[in-house]
């Protein structure tokens, strides 16, 4: 493997999970930029977790710039958040190339994403309250947008994880609750306090995701328990490729891109409304589409009813 990293032959197809789970801007803008960084970094001793930490620092710096609120500070903040979004994908690329992916790494990455979202949302609420003079409206919009983001991301993460597990015949295992519980059991007996807290929260979050999906798509939840190398799994990938591309719009990358624009243009209220109304509508459409395809498959006996 080491010799492979001495050339520039690493391609985008080597470091992304599947184009089916990527939104268009992430696939055609973020990923090529991330690959430019991943190529030299993979030949160094820099770890994926260190890149995640840099992404976190950049996102927190963006939040600070929003709070300052001047035009210059906001433009710097927009650049920092865009940089955070780019680094957020580099860690995964390095992990896949070095074959060091782990549930702990997934948990750290998810925690960093959540911290950046909370920090930038709080900063946006503060700034919007300051310039509008309507703090209650700003808080309501920010809280609504954050709750919607969290639910949208859980829906995307579930369908992305199931799609990739079936697509790869089980080789992709990121975000698997059973695997996360096994990791938690190991760190409880020999891990650090940070690892124990991190994995406890991660398992709890995956449990919340499962609870949400049991309500939204009970058939999909049962289907996710099927063996990844089964005929049912292969049929799922074939029938659900188009819905998956719609689910991709509810991932974290579109949120980051829209927030970057909101920071630069000073239009946080527009972002909040888009997240609450437009992206919730996309989620409803994707859920309805997914459930309809699953029901049709169940009627034909292609998936268990």
Report on the structure:
The protein has 305 residues and is mainly α. The protein has a single domain (2-299), classed as CDP-alcohol phosphotransferase transmembrane (TM) domain (Four Helix Bundle (Hemerythrin (Met), subunit A), Up-down Bundle), CATH 1.20.120. It is built from twelve helices and no strands. Helix 2 packs across helix 4, helix 4 runs antiparallel to helix 11 (252-265) and helix 6 runs antiparallel to helix 10. It has helices at residues 12-15, 24-41, 48-68, 71-98, 103-132, 135-167, 177-190, 193-216, 218-223, 231-247, 252-265, 268-299. The chain is globular, with a radius of gyration of 20 Å. It is 79% helix and 0% strand.
Write the layout of secondary structure elements.
Elements: H1 12-15, H2 24-41, H3 48-68, H4 71-98, H5 103-132, H6 135-167, H7 177-190, H8 193-216, H9 218-223, H10 231-247, H11 252-265, H12 268-299
Short description:
The protein contains 12 helices and no strands. With 305 residues, the protein is mainly α.
Stated plainly, the CATH topology is called: Four Helix Bundle (Hemerythrin (Met), subunit A)
| Estimated helix fraction | over 70%
CATH architecture: Up-down Bundle
Low-pLDDT residue spans: 1-7
Q: Please state the CA-atom Rg, rounded to the nearest Å.
A: 20 Å
> Total helix count?
12
Question: How many individual β-strands?
Answer: 0
CATH level 1 name? Mainly Alpha
Order of helices and strands: HHHHHHHHHHHH
What fraction strand?
A: under 5%
């Amino acid at each position: 493997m080491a010799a492979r990293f001495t050339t520039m032959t690493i391609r985008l197809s080597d470091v992304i999970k599947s184009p089916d789970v990527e939104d268009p801007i992430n696939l055609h803008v973020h990923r090529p930029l991330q690959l430019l960084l991943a190529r030299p970094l993979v030949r160094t001793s820099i770890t994926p977790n260190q890149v995640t930490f840099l992404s976190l620092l950049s996102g927190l710096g963006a939040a600070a710039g929003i709070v300052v609120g001047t035009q210059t500070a906001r433009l710097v903040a927009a650049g920092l958040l865009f940089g955070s979004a780019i680094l957020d994908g580099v860690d995964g690329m390095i992990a896949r190339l070095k074959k060091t992916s782990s549930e702990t790494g997934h948990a750290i990455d998810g925690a960093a994403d959540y911290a950046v979202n909370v920090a930038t949302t709080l900063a946006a609420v503060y700034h919007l309250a300051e310039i509008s003079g309507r703090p209650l409206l700003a808080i309501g919009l920010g809280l609504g947008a954050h709750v919607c983001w969290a639910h949208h991301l859980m829906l995307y993460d579930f369908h992305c994880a199931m799609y990739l597990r079936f697509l790869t015949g089980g080789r992709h295992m990121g975000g698997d609750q059973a695997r996360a519980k096994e990791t938690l059991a190991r760190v409880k007996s020999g891990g650090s306090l940070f690892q124990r807290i991190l994995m406890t929260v991660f398992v709890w979050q995956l449990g919340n995701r499962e609870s949400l999906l049991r309500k939204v798509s009970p058939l999909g939840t049962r289907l996710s328990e099927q063996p990844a190398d089964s005929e049912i799994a292969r049929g799922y990938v074939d029938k659900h490729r188009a819905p998956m591309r719609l689910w991709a719009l509810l991932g974290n990358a579109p949120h980051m891109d829209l927030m970057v624009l909101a920071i630069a243009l000073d239009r946080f209220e527009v972002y909040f409304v888009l997240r609450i109304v437009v992206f919730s509508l996309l989620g409803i459409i994707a859920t309805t589409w997914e459930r309809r395809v699953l029901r049709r498959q169940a009627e034909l006996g292609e998936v268990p009813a």
